[in-house]
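User:
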Amino acid sequence: MHRFLSEDWIKAYMDEWNKNEKLKKNLEDFSASIKYYIEGKESEAVELIVEKGTAKHAGKANSQKYDFELWASPENWKKLATGEMGPRAAMLTKRLKFKGSMITAMKYMSSFEESLRMMSRIPTVWDV
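Assistant: Predicted structure:
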């Protein structure tokens, strides 16, 4: 079990990402640095670096500028990961905060949704 959005959790998530051939194929033209964190705990953020659809690095985030940043409360992250709340609804209602190119996010929305659903495949301790 991995504590949600810990360094070992994001590494397990990277492994899950790279096992998903459909996701990698749909994102073969996509490269980005992505920062994830729990609202109010930005100092504990983690990062995922994606190059041409493949996750190349996962670990603790640093002070660099990221292409995308995603943050939410622990409760809303769990709802997103379990499918109780969809990413579009979460973004529209500001339950999932987002920083980055909205045009790019909309272009890859189905892959973005898939990447959030993959979170439920990581054995997770949600009590953060």
